[in-house]
TrEMBL record:
This is Universal stress protein. It comes from the Bacteria. Residues 156-275 form the UspA domain. Belongs to the universal stress protein A family. It comes from Pseudoduganella guangdongensis. Transmembrane segments: none annotated. SUPFAM superfamilies: Adenine nucleotide alpha hydrolases-like. Pfam families: Usp.
Length: 277
């Protein structure tokens, strides 16, 4: 597979050093173009007539949002400069999920923060990574809030469920898998009959054709809704610094009834995770 040539990073605001560090490390590793975006969101404040009325409070609020976005971009630029690489920085003024999804079409990989608001998540609101993964045409590497890990992609846990989304995640991750020291492909069997044991051997053969020596493992979860937690437990126990999995590869109805592995992982992970849909 062709290495990543363009890596997009969502710089904020607020700026998260863990997100920036992972993006810079990947850009260095692949000698890739690094494009940093920050969204001010001021377009949502530009209702007809508001600017014309000379509303000073609104004007100050808009300038604060512009300053926050510009500050996040400057922090990302400084982080890249310390690593000896340059970053193209761009401020966007629309809705984060819409503009980022559009910009992601022109990148090989997007690096974004977990941006977890647990209160909103409990009330059924989707997080920014969840919205991007459902709507964007590129793989998304999500970095946990405040991630302080020194590496990303040295020890990779690849979750396989036989879905098209999982296959796309594998393909998207090949450049990372080829550089990893350890790659473990796991699949799960559950009490409710979910089981894909035969395909994981074919997956290992496919990875080997790309120079990736992956060990395989079968794990068991009590029922399908617990697979996400079982996956995270195994990732922590094995010292993985990157998860690779398909995102939202099942119907919305099935997710509502049984729960979504993607959502469980995205909201509870402690290491970066690459998702593709």
């Amino acid at each position: 597979m062709t290495p990543y040539k363009t890596i997009l990073v969502h710089a904020g605001p607020p700026f998260d050093a863990g997100v920036g560090r992972v993006a810079v490390q990947l850009a260095q590793a692949f000698d890739a173009r690094l494009v940093a975006l920050a969204c001010s969101g001021i377009e949502m404040l530009l209702a007809p007539g508001l600017i014309e009325t000379g509303n000073e409070t609104l004007a100050r609020h808009m300038m604060d949002k512009i300053d926050s976005a510009s500050g996040a971009l400057e922090q990302l630029r400084e982080l890249a400069g310390e690593a000896g690489i340059s970053a193209e920085v761009r401020r966007l003024n629309g809705r984060s999920e819409r503009e980022l999804a559009e910009e992601m079409m022109f990148a090989d990989l997007a690096v974004i923060g977990q941006a977890l608001d647990r209160r909103r998540a409990r009330n059924g609101w989707r997080t920014l990574p969840e919205m991007l993964l459902r709507n964007a045409a590129r793989p998304v590497l999500v970095v946990p809030d405040g991630y302080a890990g020194a590496t990303c992609g040295k020890c990779v846990l690849l979750a396989w469920d036989g879905s098209a989304a999982a296959a796309r995640a594998v393909s998207a991750a090949i450049p990372l898998l080829a550089r990893a020291d350890v790659v473990e492909a796991v699949t799960y069997s559950t009490d409710d009959g979910f089981n894909v044991p035969g395909e994981i051997d074919s997956l290992a053969t496919f990875l080997a054709s790309h120079g990736v020596n992956a060990r395989t493992r079968f794990l068991r979860a009590r029922r399908n809704v617990d697979i996400g937690e079982a996956m995270l437990d195994h990732a922590r126990a094995s010292g993985s610094d990157l998860l690779v999995l398909g995102g939202y590869g099942h119907s919305r109805l099935r997710e509502l009834i049984l729960g979504s592995v993607s959502t469980t992982v995205m909201r509870n992970m402690k290491m970066p995770a690459l998702f593709a849909r």
